[in-house]
């Protein structure tokens, strides 16, 4: 069964797929990496704008839907925004926006976006990556210049960084993805 639901307060919608409990459990394709076997949350390897049906919708930029993604950069695994029409996942690092053609997309996550700030990271925030030193990174989003844009929350810096307009743009108040 498919159902359309609103994404927290922004009028966006996404398709959620609810499996029939009577159906046998499918085996995951080799390109799926399970993030949480109990909930089915996983990261799906993707490239060139590919988005799985069960991807987590995180925002909007004009006519482009933005999804929770992550990509490797300089030894880090960085949460960012997948823009299917651009064929990339953008990540923020070192003051700049970096386009990655190979990335992972968060799937099957029934998390909730909740308000957060530099000094208020919820304990149930969903880890979505790590710095090159191993610090956990989380997915956050913010309204910026008419868009709802996801990026990385880096607790040691006390901010959400979004990849936007070629730059890494920081925000102290944002929404964060929680379980």
TrEMBL record:
It comes from the Eukaryota. Pfam families: DM9. It comes from Trichogramma kaykai. This is Uncharacterized protein.
């Amino acid at each position: 069964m498919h159902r359309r639901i609103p994404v927290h307060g922004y009028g966006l919608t996404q398709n959620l797929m609810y499996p029939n409990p009577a159906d046998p459990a499918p085996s995951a394709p080799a390109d799926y990496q399970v993030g949480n076997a109990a909930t089915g949350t996983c990261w799906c390897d993707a490239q060139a704008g590919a988005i799985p049906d069960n991807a987590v919708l995180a925002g909007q930029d004009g006519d482009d839907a933005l999804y929770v993604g992550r990509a490797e950069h300089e030894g880090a695994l960085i949460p960012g925004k997948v823009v299917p029409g651009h064929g990339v996942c953008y990540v923020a690092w070192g003051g700049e926006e970096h386009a990655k053609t190979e990335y992972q997309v968060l799937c099957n996550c029934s998390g909730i976006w909740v308000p957060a700030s530099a000094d208020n990271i919820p304990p149930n925030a969903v880890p979505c990556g790590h710095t090159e030193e191993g610090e956990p990174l989380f997915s956050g989003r913010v309204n910026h210049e008419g868009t709802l844009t996801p990026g990385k929350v880096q607790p040691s810096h006390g901010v959400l960084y979004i990849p936007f307009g070629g730059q890494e743009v920081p925000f102290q108040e944002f929404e964060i993805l929680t379980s």
